[in-house]
Fold this protein.
Amino acid sequence: MDFIDLKAQQKRIRDKIDAAIARVLDHGGYILGPEVRAFESQLAAFGEAKLALSCANGTDAVVLPLMAWGIGPGDAVFCPSFTFAATAEVVPWTGATPVFVDILPDTYNMDPAHLERAIDGVLREGQLKPAAVIAVDLFGQPADYPKIAEICRRHGLKLLADSAQGFGCTLDGHHPLHWADAAATSFFPAKPLGCYGDGGAVLTNAADLWNRMDSLRIHGKGEDKYDNVVIGMNSRLDSIQAAVLIEKLAIFAEEIVLRNTVADRYGRELAGAVDVPTVISGGVSVWAQYTIETDDRDGLAAHLKTKGVPTAAYYPKPLHMQTAYKAFPVGGNGLPVSEAKAARVLSLPMHPYLDEQTQDMIVQAVREFA
Ligand SMILES: Cc1ncc(COP(=O)(O)O)c(C=O)c1O
């Protein structure tokens, strides 16, 4: 049994993927070829954006908007601690300081009230200037964008959606970009919309932001890449990966429905035995992870392993407790929810093609232990 079975999807569209890759080999435009432009416009349309800009990975997709906004030394960027390192990692790259914010206990996403306290704390101390918020769509579900965007508006902060796990999620029918200034995603193979290597993209409605990021991803180009007007980087999506993504995007909407069918079934079958996930009211998750909670997380993981069920603990240690990040400030009086959740969460196998028989086996193994 796979934790995320990528082979089932590949079997379904293998002929289309083979043909798409063959087309790239035939025309030979491996870098920024026609597939990249086509994919960018299809991705923008899917994510309710005017524009999309592809890049080399999801980490670059998070840093590119920060760089383009001129975030730098003296700026505070507020982000959750209960997330993958990439969310916060890029902030010190720009010279700015990440300020960690706690999460809501039911959705694992940024707690707007705690964000407000963190901003007030930074303003009171007067050392840093609040500049931006990175909200994460953890495990695939949208953060509370209406509340977070209102706080950002009031304080004049940029809002970036780190939708690396959540691309395709919606809240009241809208994608995160409806509220955010930019949304970043990752095409790491295991992500809900993944390619066969590394890739990422930023979605935005702002043409000036897109232009600045387009310059940054090509060594800070001006007229061309031999005219360098700002310090940039090299961050491109390969044409072969774009060709693969075009085929995967074509079935993505259907796969989101399948993911929700699997998640709903888990929810029904596991309720009572363990704590099952809650989705924000009005939200549709893309279920990058199906994460349950239990007091004896490590015991349950060990038991499931003996039954051949792979699991993962995302995330066993919040970032503010990690060696690399513990010197950075935390908002309010600490992050008790992030710390408590890190000890309780366990993610179960989840992908759109998880069949009922396999799922029954997983459910039975969880129930046995519980
Ligand atoms: C929340 C979050 N942000 C950013 C990233 C970075 O994406 P990538 O691995 O493509 O650089 C990931 C995924 O790994 C992620 O889960």
In short: Residues 57-59, 62, 83-84, 86-87, 136, 162, 164-165, 186, 188, 198, 200 surround pyridoxal-5'-phosphate (CB under 6 Å). Residues 6 and 214 are 31 Å apart (CA to CA). The mean pLDDT is 98.
